Task: inverse folding
């Protein structure tokens, strides 16, 4: 009753913000993301390990804060009458800080707990289970460019093009490593209930998805850059106009956006995107990665820079 899975985080280029059904965690909009290669979360599950209660170790230390969500994810995969579980998780990047750690954590937990319980699910079933735990986690079950379709009563996820057919590098500028003040589930509901821009955000999403899909089909970097930056800034406008306001940025976040603008003015094929946190992800064609990295490293307030290519889907590593 033991299994280990690895999943990579993914970064949305057309973002998910808002839920259609909170109890089933169904997103209000579709989204398009890229799965990363070099950042990862590894989750080991021991079911029925003689414990009297569930236990979560993160990087070797007990983590009671994240345990309820992880336990609920395992409940939905294995069933509520399941034996107690020991979960050991490790990541090579900061968690809960707007770096899509929930995507990789819940994708890996879904895959590992199904295997530990000896259950086999179709990809569609795994997608629903991961998506129920965290909307973005369903996307980490797939590689490369990924679209999550918000289709009626469930979600559907597809790979738009594989990892090798349009290589890109993602340079992540970390401007703060502390966990964010407001988690995305709570924040999305605040936006839905209070932001005057929320309805327009929902109404325009299909247009942004169409533009991004078409840009990916044509391997048209400039068009993808335009729609991704627009969609990101639109999501943050929805957040800023919420009551209370949801401002995840700090001064270094803005300084990084300015660094990306200067790189673009010099002809560098790069664009930025920012999730519910202060980190800036600069997506570029591989030949520009060194210049982007250097510019972000020099940007005031940047604490650390991480780099990743595009990567593969969540997978079981043990039993292999
Ligand atoms: O899946 P969650 O609950 O971590 O929400 C993800 C929200 C964003 O990262 C801001 C956007 C996205 O599509 O990943």
Result:
């Amino acid at each position: 009753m033991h299994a280990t899975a690895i999943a990579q985080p993914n970064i949305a280029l057309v973002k998910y913000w808002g839920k259609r059904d909170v109890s089933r965690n169904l997103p209000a909009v579709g989204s398009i993301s890229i799965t990363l290669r070099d950042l990862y979360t590894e989750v080991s599950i021991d079911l029925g390990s003689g414990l009297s209660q569930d236990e979560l170790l993160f990087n070797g230390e007990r983590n009671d804060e994240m345990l309820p969500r992880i336990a609920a994810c395992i409940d939905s995969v294995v069933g509520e009458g399941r034996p107690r579980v020991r979960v050991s998780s490790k990541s090579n990047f900061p968690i809960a800080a707007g770096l899509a750690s929930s995507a990789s954590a819940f994708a890996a937990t879904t895959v590992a707990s199904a295997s530990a319980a000896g259950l086999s699910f179709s990809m569609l079933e795994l997608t629903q289970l991961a998506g129920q735990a965290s909307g973005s986690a369903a996307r980490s079950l797939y590689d490369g460019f990924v679209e999550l379709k918000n289709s009626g009563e469930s979600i559907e996820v597809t790979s738009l093009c594989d990892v090798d057919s349009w290589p890109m590098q993602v340079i992540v500028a970390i401007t703060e490593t502390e966990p964010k003040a407001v988690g995305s589930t709570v924040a999305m509901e605040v936006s839905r209930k209070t932001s005057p821009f929320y309805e327009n955000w929902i109404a325009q999403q299909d247009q942004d998805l169409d533009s991004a899909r078409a840009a990916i089909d044509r391997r048209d970097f400039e068009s993808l850059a335009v729609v991704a930056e627009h969609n990101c800034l639109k999501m943050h406008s929805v957040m800023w106009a919420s009551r209370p306001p949801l401002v995840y940025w700090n001064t270094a976040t803005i300084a990084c956006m300015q660094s990306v603008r200067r790189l673009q003015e010099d002809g560098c094929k790069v664009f930025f995107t920012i999730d519910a946190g202060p980190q800036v992800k600069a997506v570029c064609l591989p030949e520009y990665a060194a210049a982007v990295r250097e510019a972000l490293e020099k940007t005031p307030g940047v604490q650390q820079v991480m780099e990743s290519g595009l990567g593969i889907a969540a997978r079981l590593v043990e039993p292999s």
About this structure: Residues 12, 15-17, 31, 100, 102, 134-136, 184-185, 275-276 surround PMV (CB under 6 Å).
